[in-house]
């Protein structure tokens, strides 16, 4: 006779973790609803399959290394009016093209959203149970170069076969060297009609001779990629540039000219007091006051400052007169006009 006490242990050995957690709760539900044994067993199996699917999707999302937050919901299609939104949603919502080993090629200038779209398609495939792996193309090329030096390039290529789709980002940044482009071509040839590729590039096919050193290799690589491929061109201004300009416009400081207060000079300032700096409108007036120091002294009944007698020797040209004419102040004596140039 079966022992119910050993049921948890047997479920653990069978790796039915979900049934081991829920069989008692489902048993009470079956008794309340009048389920027979077949309905009870079917409900437990459905719960086990649902949890296994959720864990598998979480594992696929983790191993994909796709950029976080790059989804179709967060992409602003209004910024790219020429882009067919229905086409992008169809690629992300259906995995039929991956089973046919078709490719998706996205072209456009830097910063227009190619990586965002490619990652959004990758996230959509992952949610459907398709294994996707994201690579920066230069990093993948370096890994394959190392595998080739260690004579295990074939093993590295076959290891990538477990992913139904490979996402090669920034394809155009690969250096034009025989070592790098050779392993890249071998990857393209190995995936031809056996696995899907999603490629983003800022260089059109006409400029791919800058990537592959040999023209025949360039033609062969392009021919394998475009066969069974969907080509999408993203035409827009750079998102990063527009964001930077918007941020710079929002953070630009407002510069206001400081107010200038002009204070009339005082003739009775005390010793030790700070004299106010003259404004532009007072420069000419104060210059005239300095030139007319003798007349101010005569007006305030200060004793006249005697003029130093010239030294003996050759005559020197006299100071030019009339450079800064200063009118005589009211009440000044005409006999003090000889001091106007001191």
- Give the name of the CATH architecture of the domain at 65-245: 3-Layer(aba) Sandwich
> What value does the average pLDDT take?
80
* Strand coverage percent: 5-15%
Would you identify the regions where 5 or more consecutive residues have pLDDT less than 50? 260-287, 289-293, 314-327, 332-342
Largest sheet: 5 strands, parallel
Task: Write up this protein.
By secondary structure, the chain is an alpha/beta fold. Among the domains are: 4-60, no CATH class; 65-245, P-loop containing nucleotide triphosphate hydrolases (Rossmann fold, 3-Layer(aba) Sandwich). The protein is built from 13 helices and five strands. It has a five-stranded parallel β-sheet. Helix 2 (17-33) packs antiparallel against helix 3 (37-64), helix 7 packs across helix 8 and helix 7 (137-149) packs across helix 9. Residues 260-287, 289-293, 314-327 and 332-342 have low confidence and may be disordered.
Quick tags:
13 helices; 342 residues; single chain; alpha/beta; Rossmann fold
What's this, in brief?
By secondary structure, this protein is α/β, with parallel strands linked by helices. The chain has helices at residues 7-13, 17-33, 37-64, 85-93, 96-99, 114-127, 137-149, 153-159, 178-191, 215-226, 239-251, 283-291, 293-299, and strands at residues 103-108, 132-136, 165-169, 196-201, 229-234.
């Amino acid at each position: 006779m079966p022992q119910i006490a050993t049921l948890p242990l047997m479920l653990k050995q069978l790796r039915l973790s979900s049934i081991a957690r829920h069989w008692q709760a489902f048993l009470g539900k079956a008794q309340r609803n009048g389920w027979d044994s077949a309905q009870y067993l079917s409900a437990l199996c459905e719960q086990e399959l649902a949890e296994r699917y959720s864990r598998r999707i979480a594992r696929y999302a983790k191993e994909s290394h796709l950029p976080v937050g790059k989804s179709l919901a967060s992409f602003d299609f209004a910024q790219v009016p020429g882009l067919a939104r229905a086409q992008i949603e169809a690629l992300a919502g259906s995995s039929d093209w991956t089973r046919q080993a078709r490719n998706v090629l996205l072209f456009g200038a830097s910063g227009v959203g190619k990586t965002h779209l490619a990652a959004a398609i990758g996230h959509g495939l992952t949610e459907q149970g398709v294994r996707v792996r994201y690579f920066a193309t230069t990093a993948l090329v370096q890994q394959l170069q190392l595998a080739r030096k260690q004579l295990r390039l074939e093993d590295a290529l076959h290891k990538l076969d477990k992913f139904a789709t490979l996402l090669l980002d920034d394809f155009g940044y690969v250096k034009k060297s025989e070592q790098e482009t050779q392993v890249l071509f071998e990857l393209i040839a190995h995936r031809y009609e056996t696995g899907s590729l999603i490629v983003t590039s800022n260089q059109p096919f006409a400029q791919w001779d800058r990537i592959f050193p040999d023209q025949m290799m360039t033609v062969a690589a392009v021919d394998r990629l475009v066969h069974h491929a969907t080509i999408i061109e993203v035409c827009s201004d750079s998102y990063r540039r527009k964001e930077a300009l918007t941020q710079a416009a929002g953070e630009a400081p407002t510069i206001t000219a400081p107010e200038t207060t002009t204070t009339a000079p005082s003739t009775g300032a005390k010793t030790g007091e700070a004299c106010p700096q003259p404004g532009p409108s007072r420069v000419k007036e104060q210059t005239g006051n300095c030139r007319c120091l003798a007349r101010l002294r005569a007006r305030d009944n200060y004793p006249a400052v005697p003029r130093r007698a010239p030294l003996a020797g050759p005559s020197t040209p006299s100071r030019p007169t009339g450079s800064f004419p200063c009118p005589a102040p009211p009440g000044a004596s005409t006999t003090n006009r000889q001091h106007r140039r001191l």
